[in-house]
Design goal:
Blueprint (H helix, E strand, L loop, with lengths): L4 H7 L17 E2 L12 E8 L14 E5 L2 E3 L1 E5 L6 E8 L8 H15 L5 E7 L3 E8 L2 H9 L26 H13 L5 E8 L10 H10 L3 E6 L16 H10 L3 E3 L6 H12 L3 E5 L10 E8 L5 E4 L2 E3 L7
Parallel strand pairs: 1-5, 6-7, 6-9, 9-10, 10-11
Antiparallel strand pairs: 2-12, 2-14, 3-4, 3-13, 5-12, 7-8, 13-15
Helix pairs in contact: 2-3, 2-7, 4-5, 5-6
């Protein structure tokens, strides 16, 4: 059973990485056996580090990291090369008309991905989206349930009817509700989860039907402390051979702003290969916590940058957080 922050606070203990509500950490601590007190607010970051050739670097120390908030250096209070924090994954699959010929390959690759990445404490859910966003499987650690949900992936390019939930689809002709699906995953399934959280998004990046805008979907993911891995998968035949011109700027923004990556499916980089890279990255992350100085307004977006002292390395981390109730998230 997974317990949210409210339950942990009532018991007087907390996991340091708890999404919206930040816990407290003692100064200058390192490693997973940290005693945690609930009296100091902490901003929590997950990051990956790569060298110039793109290889993951997993042996850095606390002293090799630097954190800046609004350009001002911060003191790292918590640091860990943590690979065993619970992982919650939302797989969002585009089943709109332009993806019709790709659905079966996505289904097969996703089966292998779930089998490879999910461990005992991990959970996942599956959402398909076309003219409406549909939750095919709620949070579960069961591979068999996820398999059954993947069997339900099917083309959704008709006229949408009334769809329940926070992102309703009104009865009129709709396009692809990409942003609505991301918002739904972040707010309804990830916001209250603890540990590491990721949205894996498979789509050609075209949104022509969402009620919400890109910025609203991105904000929801940032507030949920969720990393987005965008997989740009285009069927050239659906665009009369002009698939390479399909814009992926929205997918790029969602990925880079949350600390994820953009992947483009090609003959040299298959969907299976991309899933493998995502799996390796999620198991090679650094967990960093710091206590920000100075006043912050509730709802204010605070820019964050993580660097290493080694100039030949590149850090991949979210670009900021929204202060909740005057504190970090």
């Amino acid at each position: 059973m997974r317990i949210g922050w409210a339950g942990l606070a009532a018991l007087g203990t907390a996991l340091w990485l708890s999404g919206q509500t930040p816990p407290a950490l003692p100064p200058e601590t390192e490693g997973p056996e940290t005693t945690i007190k609930v009296d100091v607010e902490v901003v929590n970051l997950l990051c990956s580090v790569r060298d110039k050739k793109g290889a993951l670097i997993a042996d850095l120390t606390r002293d090799e990291f630097q954190v800046f908030e609004e350009g001002k250096p911060q003191t790292i209070r918590y640091f860990s090369r943590e690979t065993d924090l619970p992982l919650t994954i939302g797989l969002l699959v585009d089943v709109s008309g332009s993806q019709a010929r790709l659905i079966e390959e996505e289904r097969v690759a996703a089966r292998r991905f779930f089998r490879q990445v999910l461990r005992k404490k991990d959970m996942a859910f599956l959402i398909s989206f076309g003219t409406e966003a549909e939750l095919l499987q709620d949070l579960t650690g069961s591979i068999s349930l996820l398999d059954r949900a993947l069997d339900k992936l099917k083309l959704n390019a008709a006229v949408g009817g009334l769809h329940p939930g926070p992102v309703p689809t009104v009865g009129k002709i709709r396009g692809t509700v990409l942003y609505d699906a991301v918002y739904l995953a972040a707010t309804e399934r990830l916001a209250n989860e603890v540990g590491r959280k990721a949205i894996v998004l498979i789509t050609d990046g075209v949104d022509v039907g969402s009620r919400l805008k890109l910025g609203e979907a991105l904000e929801a993911a940032q507030k949920a402390n969720a990393i987005i891995y965008s997989i740009h998968y285009v069927d050239p035949l659906a665009y009369m051979g002009w698939g390479e011109t399909v814009d992926d700027s929205a997918l790029t923004k969602m990925a880079t702003q949350t600390g994820g990556r953009l992947f483009r499916v090609s003959k040299k980089l298959t969907l299976d290969m991309i899933f493998q890279q995502i799996q390796e990255e999620m198991r090679s992350q650094y967990a960093i916590g710091y206590t920000p100085e100075g006043p912050r307004q509730p709802g204010e977006f605070r820019r964050v940058e993580v660097r290493t002292t080694r100039r030949d390395l590149k850090v991949q981390a979210r670009k900021g957080y929204y202060a909740a109730g005057g504190g970090p998230s």
